[in-house]
Every structure is written in C-alpha cells, then in structure tokens.
Design brief:
The protein is α/β, with parallel strands linked by helices. The chain contains 7 helices and 12 strands. The chain is about 35% helix and about 25% strand. A 7-stranded parallel beta sheet has the order 3-2-1-4-5-6-12, with helices on both faces. A hairpin with a 4-residue loop joins strand 10 (about 200-205) and strand 11. The structure holds nicotinamide-adenine-dinucleotide.
Amino acid sequence: MIKVIIGGICGHMGKTVLELVRTDPETECIAGVDLKQEDCGVLLYQSFAKVQEKADVVIDFSSAANLENLLAYAKRTGAAVVLAATGYTPEQIQTIRHSADEIAIFRTANLSVGINLLQKLVREAAAFLGESFDIEIIERHHNLKKDAPSGTAYMLAQSANQAFGGEKRYCYGREGMVGARERAEIGIHAVRGGTIVGEHEVMFAGDDEIITLAHSARSKRVFAAGAVTAAKFICGKPAGQYDMQDVLANK
Ligand SMILES: NC(=O)c1ccc[n+]([C@@H]2O[C@H](COP(=O)([O-])OP(=O)(O)OC[C@H]3O[C@@H](n4cnc5c(N)ncnc54)[C@H](O)[C@@H]3O)[C@@H](O)[C@H]2O)c1
C-alpha cells in the first residue's frame, strides 16, 4: 500500500483526492494537513511542521504559502511530493528546482491528461503557423479562484512561446488606449464566474481565419484522479523533478 498524506485535505480538491485514495486498492491516506480543522475521518494536522507519520508520498492541494513547510517535511522524511497547488512565485519555483536535487517532486499546473495533450498541440500549432498568427489565451474559472491568470494558461503560453525561442512577451489583459496589437505579444485573459471548473482556449488569429484549440474540465475529479496517478508514478522514483509529460511518456 502506498501511504499518502494530503495537504489541503479540507478543501474542494483535498476532499476529492481523499475519496479516490480511499477507494483505490493501492493507496491509503495516513494523515491530512489543513489550516481548517474539519473532521474528515483521518488524522489531521494544522501544519507539515507537526507531522510525525512518514508517508511515501504527499499530494498537496493547499496553497503556494504552504511550500516551505511541505518541502522541509519531505526532506526530513524522504517522502516524494506531488505539488498540485498553483500560484508559486518565480523564487519558489527556484526553491522547488533546488529541492529536486534531494527529493522526488512532481509539479504541474494542470493534472488533466487532456490539458497535457493540449499543451503538445499548442506547441505544434504555434510552430506551424509562425509569426503571421496572433496568439491569445482565454481561461475561465469559478468565482472562488484566488490566483490569475491560471497556472495552466501560463503553461500554455510557454508551450506556444517555445516555437519563438521564448521571445514573445505576455500581455495580461488590456485596458484603455493600448494601441495596435504587437506581433511580439501573447495575450492572456482571465474570466471569473459562477462554478466554472476550468476552461482554456488558445486562439490563433490570422488574416481571415481563426484556429481555436480548447479544453473544458467538467468536474474536479479529473484533477484529483491525475494527482493520484502522479502519486503512484513518483513513488519510489529517484530525486528529480517530474511532470505529466513523464507519466504520459511512461504509458
Ligand atoms: N494542478 C491542478 O490540476 C489543479 C486543479 C485544481 C486546483 N488546483 C489548485 O489547488 C489549490 C486548491 O484548490 P481548491 O479548489 O481545493 O481550494 P480550496 O480553497 O477549496 O482548498 C484549499 C485548502 O487548503 C487549505 N490551506 C490553504 N493554505 C494552507 C496552508 N498554508 N497550510 C495548510 N492548509 C492550507 C485551506 O484551509 C483549504 O481547506 C489551488 O492552488 C488551485 O489553484 C490545481
């Protein structure tokens, strides 16, 4: 049995992961960590600094603010980590990179298989269409999402930008007399409302034609299932940084 600790266990995603871990014959949840102390039927800590149990893997759906405590726990115990929260700062991403010299870390802004395929298609479309098409990314999420734009929108922008050697700059929304759109931009726009689970659209707008690549998540279970798949994949792996592309390549 793979021993799992869930970070953010009282949140929307944490609860869904707990359901899946409980029903999966290969995994068991030995504890949870959350600032909230709601009874969810497992041993609950308020911080990773206080956790005594040794897990094989931690699945964290809490927040970027929890990173330092979580990495310290993983280094202390040798547990592998699935970082599923979003909104990490560039400094935190550096910390994650350095920590991967010591522990196995899985990180992706989006755990759905479909989005990871979309990433590949966007990269190919951008390389094929080149400079004559303007790229705009529109993401839509529920009204409780705290960070914007979504980590996935940023990931898709980076995939498109690979075709241009990373030279395009990101334009986050537009307002006022911004002037004509420049070729060197990739536009990124965040829409928030209601209970939208997560929608991403990458538009390639050329002269007289538009190509749109899009993905729509219909339920949060898709991300929770991806996190459990990632946890099983990373368990027992040597130190290093892994993502969904590694899981797909392994299939
Ligand atoms: N990678 C993906 O595919 C993916 C998919 C969905 C959500 N997410 C991300 O997962 C995170 C959680 O999403 P959610 O919808 O479940 O949010 P949520 O607000 O419902 O749940 C977050 C939980 O984490 C707890 N928490 C927050 N900060 C904490 C801290 N410092 N220490 C301990 N507990 C803490 C909160 O009390 C809450 O219970 C967000 O960052 C979201 O963007 C990622």
